[in-house]
Amino acid sequence: MKKGFVFTLDILLGTSILLLSILMFGSYWSSESTFQERQYEKLSYIADDTMEAISHLKASSFIDKPTIANLVSKNVIKEADLNKTILDLIASFWYAGNRSIALNISKEVMERITLDFCIGLYLENESIYSSCSLSERNTAVSARIETGYMVGKPTQGYLARAFLTSIKSKTESAYAYFGGFVGEGNITRIITLPIIEVVNEAYIEFNAGNNFSLYINNQDSGFYTKSSGDGNMTADTWNINYSYLDNFNSGDNIININFTGNGSYIGGGYLRVSYNTSEMITDKPNSRYYFPGIHGLINLYSSFYVQGNISSMNASLHYLNNIENATLLFTIGNATVYKSNASGEQTVFLNNTEINSSLALTGLDYEHLSEETIPIRFGLEPGSPLFIKQGQADVILITDLSGSMNWKMNSSDDGNVISDCGDPEINSSNTSRISLARCLDKEFINIIMNVTGNRMGLVGFNSDAYVYTPDLGSTREELITHIDGYPEEPSGGTCICCAINRAYNILNTYSNSSREKYIIVMSDGIPSACCGCADWFLFFCISCNSTGTSTASQFTDCFGSASDCTGNSCNGAMQNANYSSCRVHNDLDAVVHSIGFGPVASCPNANWTLRSIASCGEGLYYASADSEELREIYRRIAENIVIRYKAQVITIDGNISAGNILYPDSYIGFDYTPNILPYEYGEISLTRETARFRNFTGDTIDIPYKEGWFNVSEKVRIADAKITSYSSEFWTDRVYVNNPLIDWTGIYWLGDYIVDYQSLGDPYIVQIPLDYISSGNNSVRIGTGVEPSNATGGSPDNRIIYTIRVSGSVGYGDMLDSYESATADAIQRLENEISDYVEAGEGNIATETKNLKGLRWLWGPSLIKVLMWEK
User: Fold this and answer.
1) Closest Cα to residue 768, out of 375, 179, 372, 376?
2) Is residue 601 part of a domain?
């Protein structure tokens, strides 16, 4: 006997008798009459007996067969496998893909049962073994449905599963968010931390109006300096020094932000504290929105989100107003739910009936507010006579004065010169481009200079550039007089880079970091003159690298004619114009818009130049040959600049005390039925954030926005997702989502409330409903505006912050031969599943183990057939 297997005489004797009976039965029938009916009956008996034999005989009965003996010697067939039937053994190898082994075993077992007949073994409709070619003559079949054991799989053993009962540690983050605009004064926020082992990092990301000192639980935690730019829809970032991290505690932490000088506000941002904790669940539902504390002028634009169906609401407003006759109001959506000019310290409680009634006046109800990002506003009433909106924009308007500006709007023929902007012919396509340009320049000046504090400069260009205003001190009347001084008959080439460089000089000399800087570049053609990296007109073009260093030069043979719309002749001048825009944006933080005046869009090189100027200057590019469209373009750009400073920042007109307080115990309360993802046993929550959108610009002329994305693994469940928006003094007003389940779909639109955004709140956080998120890649677009029809782009510093749920359990694994091995296997599988996220720790994993017997593994049920037929 091989491998220590012992077989009884009973087994060998039984096997011999059964096979012998089949052989004898075959011999008996072979001597009988060959009538067809008797022959078929004979074949049927042999097929049935063969099926009975292979279905009951143990594999151990055939230990002497070469194939089985060889597999036993190699430990492929184990002792437990020899107790299975020979049919089990054959089918198991067949289903496992070892079909040659199944064939060899079948042949060695069945080749003695041939005599004058043929025999075949079939599994479903596939042949495992056949002693000869199948014939249609008198074929008999014995069939049955069988399920069997797989070779190598135990028929009894232990199964185990594992799940977390607690964890040793995970790295998690808590956030304190600030609204779209919080000011104007020192700000207080409370951030709540769970039971923490250690704080690993604290990080600040703000669009801050000025430098500030940070206090954590009344402990001095550093002084933070904003960048030289003024944060035009961008954010500064700071890591809190390691020495201050011990100032954080488990529970509520009071955060104070104390500004220095003017600009005491946050135009969106958050404080993130990263820590180690043993708490498995950290994303807990909240039934209140707490206002930030403001000590100065109360001026809050923010939002709330309730993840469920709201049944009632209340609010508690605790504030101090020391400005007599100043009206404060609190709005939810476009509904004013509180308005008062009472002075002194006030504690106001608004009950459900009061809030519900106020909402109803504007067509809102709790259904509209449920599972939606809702803008809220608390502060001084817009348009209050106590305050003025102080403009802070320095704008350089650049006008093309090259020879082609004599042409008609839609052709290269000379147009009619019209001096009176009120002349109806000013909008005719026969009008000269310079005539229309003068009028649009004047309208632009009127809009910009209508706001106190805004300043303007004028630059004209042809083959060189000319400064018409020596500084930024010109009045509106003086600016219009300069426009009237533009030449009646323009001439010369097109040196766009010269004009941008002149604008650079003006802003660099007369503006400063506290003011917004804009350049508007208008041209009707291809740049045909060069200026190098910082100089004026040159007869040759100098290529400039990103640091402004000259790298190569070439003589230009570009004349700005129609033939130069394609090809390389104007490349040097085009690149110089692009570099000049990059330089003014990078050095001075100026925004550069561009306007194609006339049929520029049909000229590829001119179109590329103006578009690249706007792209590098973080501005917008427009082009048209239609006078009304051009008028709308100029108006849109001007109003974007103006409305920015009519919006959320307040400047005190006169000597009025700013000692007003919004206390951070003010809140909005919600009774609601949560519609949150229920926790599965042992599940762990983890918060993650994407990279900023800086490199994912998706601006178009019609719908400016920024785009980013996040990927949700199939191994996790998404529990929460929100997008941040640095809207500065604009309003976050549009968000779209796209993923494998839905095409681009709007999930937030501020224009649903009202046309005039000034009375609305401004979200910094827009919630992405879970129904709009899928496994795989989820793309998000977000934009801002000052009104529904006037989009103002989005911030490159936006990002997505989302919470995932990681399963803290694994199901039953393979059946193993001992309790210990099954338990160890379950624990290892769980640790492999969660190792990227948490540290489980000894004693934090529970297991459940089952002892099972008589399992039939993996193959079947299948139709097994034995066929007998005449040779």
Assistant:
1) 372
2) yes
Q: Are 596 and 468 in a shared domain? A: yes
Give rounded-to-5 percent helix, strand, coil for the chain.
25, 35, 35
CATH code for the domain of 577:
3.40.50.410
Series of mean pLDDT values for 10-residue runs along the chain (871 residues): 34 44 45 61 85 88 91 87 86 85 90 76 86 77 75 69 80 90 90 89 92 96 81 84 95 94 85 86 78 91 94 96 84 94 93 96 93 93 57 92 89 83 84 92 90 91 89 92 90 90 93 90 86 54 52 59 80 85 91 91 88 89 89 85 55 53 96 81 84 59 71 88 87 93 93 82 94 93 83 86 88 83 89 80 82 60 84 77
DSSP letters spanning 676-727: -PPPPTT-EEEEEEPPPGGG-B---SSS--EEEEEEE-TTEEEEEEEEE---
Reduce the DSSP state of residue 564 to 3 states and report it.
helix
The answer to whether residues 727 and 640 belong to one domain is no
Structure tokens, 197: 């082992």
* CB-CB contact of 502 with 465 (8 Å): yes
**Residues whose CB is less than 8 angstroms from the CB of residue 662 and which lie 6 or more positions away in sequence, other chains included:** 291, 292, 293, 294, 298, 300, 318, 319, 378
269: phi > 0 → left, psi -120 to 50 → alpha, else beta; which? left
Task: Count Cα atoms within 13 angstroms, Cβ side, for 619.
Answer: 31
Q: How far does Cα 720 stand from its chain's mean position?
A: 12
**Structurally, how many domains does the chain consist of?**
5
DSSP class per residue in 752-819: GT-S-GGGS---SEEE--GGG--SEEEEEEEEEEEETTEEEE--TT--EEEEEEE--EE-----BSSH
Torsion-angle region of 841 (φ positive above 0: left; ψ -120 to 50: alpha; else: beta): left
Radius of gyration of the chain (CA): 41
Report residue 870 CA to chain centroid gap.
72
> Do 352 and 420 reside in the same domain of the chain?
no
- Cα–Cα distance between 248 and 241 in angstroms, integer? 12
Taking each helix axis from N to C terminus, what angle separates 99-110 and 86-95, rounded to the nearest 10 degrees?
Answer: 160
Tokens of residue 657, six digits: 């005390």
Strand 181-193, strand 265-277: pairing: antiparallel
Please give the Cα distance from 790 to 793 (Å, whole number): 10
Tokens representing residue 491 in the block: 């001439």
Query: Please, are residues 495 and 461 in contact by the beta-carbon 8 Å criterion?
Result: yes
In this structure, are residues 550 and 533 in contact, taking their beta carbons and an 8 Å threshold?
A: yes
What single-letter DSSP state applies at residue 252? E
CA distance 65 to 68: 6
Range of the domain at 337: 302-386+654-675
The answer to whether residues 44 and 117 touch, using CB atoms and an 8 Å cutoff, is: no
Regarding whether 702 and 556 lie in a shared domain, the answer is no
Secondary structure in 3-state letters for 806-865? ECCEECCCCCECCHHHHHHHHHHHHHHHHCCCEECCCCCEEEEEEEEECCCCCEEEEEEE
Question: How far is it, in rounded angstroms, from Cα 542 to Cα 848?
Answer: 75
Q: Give the CATH number of the domain where residue 794 resides.
A: 2.60.120
Cβ-contact 241, 251 below 8 angstroms: no
> Do 442 and 544 fall into the same domain?
yes
Residue 561 to residue 579: CA distance in whole angstroms:
22
| Same domain, yes or no: 571 and 658 | no
Tell whether 593 and 660 lie within a shared domain. no
H-helix or E-strand containing 206? Answer: strand 196-208
3-state DSSP assignment of residue 596:
strand
Residue ranges with strand state E in 535-631: 540-544, 550-555, 591-597, 618-624
The tokens describing 828, both together, are 């290892």
> What is the 8-class DSSP label of residue 217?
T
Considering only CA atoms, which of 715, 724, 780, 786 is closest in space to residue 747? Answer: 780
